Amino acid sequence: MLFERLNQDNVEEYIAYLREAMNEEPDNMTAGEVDEQGIRNRVSDPFYAATTSILAKEDGRVVGRIEYHFYGCMQDGYRMAYVDWVYVRKACRHRGIAQMLFSEFEKDCLRNNIDQYYLIRATNEEAGRFYGKFQDVELSDTPLLRKYLKL
Question: In degrees rounded to 5, what are phi and psi of residue 31?
Answer without folding.
Answer: -115, 155
